[in-house]
Automatic annotation (TrEMBL):
Heterohexamer composed of two FlhC and four FlhD subunits. Each FlhC binds a FlhD dimer, forming a heterotrimer, and a hexamer assembles by dimerization of two heterotrimers. Zn(2+) binds at C138, C141, C158, C161. SUPFAM superfamilies: FlhC-like. One of its GO terms (cellular component) is cytoplasm. InterPro entries: FlhC. It is found in: Cytoplasm. Its cofactor is Zn(2+). This is Flagellar transcriptional regulator FlhC. It comes from Roseateles toxinivorans.
């Protein structure tokens, strides 16, 4: 997406960075998705969020997305993202931003905590882009869920249809549907 980035005006890049900071994105996301200098981004981050960015590595593993509740949240986000990708002509990062805002609206409407951070959402899209994760259709409910690419669809049952025994009766994920 370097081509798209280069034609963006600086004002647009700042606007995009501010939106990401407000959504709670890590500084590394801003570095990757704008052409603004590190110093500039650092200043912007402190101004907008009122604190210094957290240090340390971004999560690099796909494991988190495979655990039960995170998988449901990641799947909800990715369904929205795939939909926007099809119907809207936007730069890649703007699709992530819009999909994440819609994901937050959905979880809020259902009184759920937004378990998926915008940084993880951004990472998830990268994992899908490079083939480390994909979506597989649940053989019971027909919803599409985040899985490893080698999942056999015929046998795949999602976390909503087959919650872990300790999870109790569906309170935690409320009425999330992936159809
Ligand atoms: Zn299912």
């Amino acid at each position: 997406m370097a081509r798209n980035k280069s034609i963006l005006t600086e004002a647009r890049q700042i606007e995009r960075a501010v939106t990401l900071i407000n959504l709670g994105a890590r500084l590394q996301v801003l570095e990757s998705e704008t052409d603004l200098s590190y110093e500039r981004l650092l200043r912007l981050y402190k101004e907008v969020s009122g604190k210094s960015p957290s240090k340390g590595q971004l999560p690099f593993s796909t494991d988190w997305f495979m655990t039960w509740q995170p998988n449901i949240h990641a799947s909800l986000f990715l369904n929205i993202h795939e939909y926007l990708n099809k119907v809207a002509e936007m730069d890649e990062i703007d699709t992530v931003i819009k999909a994440y805002q819609l994901y937050q609206e959905q979880t809020k409407a259902q009184g759920l905590e937004d378990l998926l951070s915008v940084t993880r959402a951004w990472r998830l899209v990268k994992f899908v882009d490079n083939g480390m994760l994909t979506m597989t259709k649940c053989s019971k409910c027909g919803g599409h869920f985040v899985t490893h690419p080698h999942e056999i669809a015929r046998h795949y049952v999602c976390g909503l249809c087959n919650p872990p025994a300790r999870a109790g009766k569906g309170k935690a994920q409320g009425g999330i549907h992936m159809h």
